[in-house]
Structure formats: structure tokens, C-alpha cells
Amino acid sequence: MESKSIESASRFDSLKWLAVFVLVAVGVVGNQVYSAESVLYRVLALVALALVAGFVALATDRGRRFAVLLKEARVEIRKVVWPTRPELVQTTIIVVVFVLVVALLLWGMDSLISWLVAGFIG
């Protein structure tokens, strides 16, 4: 009995994803067909279609799992300890200095190799 409910849910999920695809296609084609209309109207129509497509997508199994993932990611982001301004400035200076040193080393090696090759070739 459980397999029937899973099978029917997946069948309906396929129909829901088809509806999402159709809504996106209608938005793309409609934007082309009504390209002479005001941008405001086209944007409002695209936003409305996107909201409807989003709600339909969230009604699927994958959509619900994606919503749970977003909620969990939001919880994890709240746990992040952001650096203070002095830490950020210090780290940025260290990175910039390191990049400059590596760039100078690479420039020096490139110049040396090109000088050696030019001397060898003549």
C-alpha cells in the first residue's frame, strides 16, 4: 500500500514539474511575444509566473526537501562567527602582501627564464 502512495506521488510530482516547465516556457515565450510592451508589465508578469512556478515546485517532494535544506542552511549561517573589523583588515593586508610577493617572484622567474632563453637562442 505504501508503494502505491509513493508511486502516485512521483507521478503527480512529474506532472507538477511539467507544469513548472510550462510556466517557465510561457514566461520566456511571452516575454518575446510582448517585447513591445512596457518593461514594467513584462517584469510583473514574469515575477507572477515565477512565484506560481515556485509554489508548484515547492509542492513536489524535491521542492520540500529543497525548502528544508534552505531552512537548515539559514540555521547554520546564524552559527557563523564573523570576523571583527580589525581582524578583517589584518587578514586582507596579509593576503595582499602575499599576492604581491608571489607576483614579484613569478615576474622575476619569468624574466630570468626569458633572459636565459634569449641568450641561448641568440
TrEMBL record:
Highest taxon of source: Bacteria
Subcellular location, record wording: Membrane
GO MF annotations in UniProt: protein transmembrane transporter activity
A single cellular component GO annotation: plasma membrane
Keywords per UniProt: Cell membrane, Membrane, Protein transport, Translocation, Transmembrane, Transmembrane helix, Transport
Residue ranges crossing the lipid bilayer per the database entry: 15-34, 40-59, 88-107
BP GO terms, sorted: intracellular protein transmembrane transport; protein secretion; protein targeting; protein transport by the Sec complex
Listed Pfam families: SecE
Subunit and interaction comment: Component of the Sec protein translocase complex. Heterotrimer consisting of SecY, SecE and SecG subunits. The heterotrimers can form oligomers, although 1 heterotrimer is thought to be able to translocate proteins. Interacts with the ribosome. Interacts with SecDF, and other proteins may be involved. Interacts with SecA.
NCBIfam families: PRK05740.2-4, secE_bact
Record's function text: Essential subunit of the Sec protein translocation channel SecYEG. Clamps together the 2 halves of SecY. May contact the channel plug during translocation.
Family in the record: Belongs to the SecE/SEC61-gamma family.
Name this protein carries in UniProt: Protein translocase subunit SecE
Source organism of this protein record: Marinobacter fuscus
Gene: secE
